[in-house]
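Why show two proteins at once? Because comparison is the fastest way to build intuition. When a single record is shown, students tend to memorize it. When two are placed side by side, the eye starts asking what differs. So, the first record is below.
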Amino acid sequence: MSNNIEGKVVVITGASSGLGEAAARLLSGDGASVVLGARRVDRIQSLAGALTAKGGKALAVARINNGVSAPCSK
């Protein structure tokens, strides 16, 4: 069976725990680039770090005070 998710970009909301985190780990492991969104910035930063450490591509994005979404950095 071919992996048709490889090389795609997937946006996941609620990625800081539960099903969102599990989906991010699974899809990243299958070769997708993942954009992680959640309210808990520290959790998605940690997840993005773990996914990239395993060779995946991940970006943590959070909403900042003025309502604009921006990439999170440590």
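Second record. Ask yourself what differs from the first in the token line.
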Amino acid sequence: MAELKIKIPEDLKRKMEKFGVDWSPAIRRMIEREIQNLTEIERIVSKSKMTEEDALELGEKISKSIAERFRKHVTGDRR
């Protein structure tokens, strides 16, 4: 089996040690889930006809819409 070395902050290491858990299986499962998620995203994206430019434009429209909705919520503007 291959080994993977990672660096984590000292405070996270102390928190992990507090539980006395063998973290290898848990981290291996997290990596497997992330690979499944990325594989699914890759599958969906491969079928998409949306270009990167289209995605950026859509993201900008969504951001503007959310910002406007938030502005209205904060100011009480019901227009």
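One difference worth noting in the second protein: The mean pLDDT is 92.
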